[in-house]
Amino acid sequence: MLFSNLLIPTLKDAPQEAEIISHKLMLRAGMIRKAASGIYTWLPLGLKVLKKIENIIREEMDESGAQEVFMPMVQPKELWDETKRWDKMGPELLRIKDRHERDFCLGPTHEEVITDIIRNNVKSYKQLPLNIYQIQTKFRDEVRPRYGIMRGREFLMKDSYSFNIDESSLQETYILMRETYKKIFNRIGLDFKISKADSGAIGGDSSEEFHVLAENGEDTIAISDGSEFAINTELLLSEGQDIDSLEGKPSPDGKGVIQIKKGIEVGHIFKLGKLYAESMKANVLNADGKASTLQMGCYGIGVSRLVAAAIEQNYDEKGIIWPHNISPFDINIISIGHNKEQEITEAAINLYDQLTKMNYSVLLDDRNVGYGSKIKDSELIGIPLNIIIGKNYIENKEIELIARNGDKSMNPVDDIKTILNFFKN
After folding, report:
1. DSSP conformation letters of 44-94
2. pLDDT digits (tens, 9 = 90+) for 282-316
């Protein structure tokens, strides 16, 4: 992709409304633009990152045996009445009427819709277990949207729902999803913790949250510095415990001491049990030929929120530092004097073609601006590797490699192996 053809409206300074790092950098890097309070348009650069995260999630969900569907965002009131959540959800549920005065809502989640699908289409235990997922837009009418896409009203979410014949089967699916989530967040390149949590408005028997550790996290979690132990402090407060008495106490699992950290919730998994299945009469025939109420699980990932969370964990004073697997581009070729120096232009295009044929995602900065502007934009955007083609190429047939982490190297332009090793490191 040529930089001159790509819509990347970078900004020198962030708008005053931007409060946290991810919001500021996403606006400055030209990734998003605000349409209304808590509602954003994803521009090409931001969408590339969003799609990479979406693809990682989809690959791991498919690998787990889950099946993808796409459910409607607009949901009928009748389904929500069955679970009594039409009123329980309060003003966060955006209610609308069609031209026939029938009541609908914009879906903040899809437990009712998927349970309705399963109860009408699955009749025997032999068809179980099932794990159905989607990646789809959600809408929750937040009273005070803030922090850009971190706490927006409209957002992209991966939500999945499992259906099992009994508790032991549900436990197996729950553990499978827990491991799948760990694979997803590790592939994205995040430092995260799994914490015990309150099930909140979703309900159910028990739940766990996945938190990306970051200073601007909205949640406070108590973690062990010597094990995987972590718990959301909201749960501790609900149990009457004093959080302050925890800043160096031994971890409850006997490994390490407790630290209080800020976290961004990016995933939440629930054991729903029979909560929705009972109220919606979702039954199948068991091995004895008798009606058996389904056991359910619910598993969510904030896809768009993951973009902001990754930035909150990976940035410096120059801009974003993307983990390689979700960077909008792998490599940026900075051509100094493009379309002015034929030798430089040809070398830049040839290298671009070689790397593209090797399935690398490459940006070629062909703009008629100076090196300073080009490298600043690249650092702001966060591309892992810059390849500078300028006077050193004309004089010595060498190019300069500059990694986003600051590492530098001079190499022959035809030394592709070294270039790619430099990128991978």
Report:
1. HHHHHHHHHHHHHHHHHHHHTT-EE----SEEEHHHHHHTTHHHHTGGGS-
2. 999 999 999 999 999 999 999 999 999 999 999 99
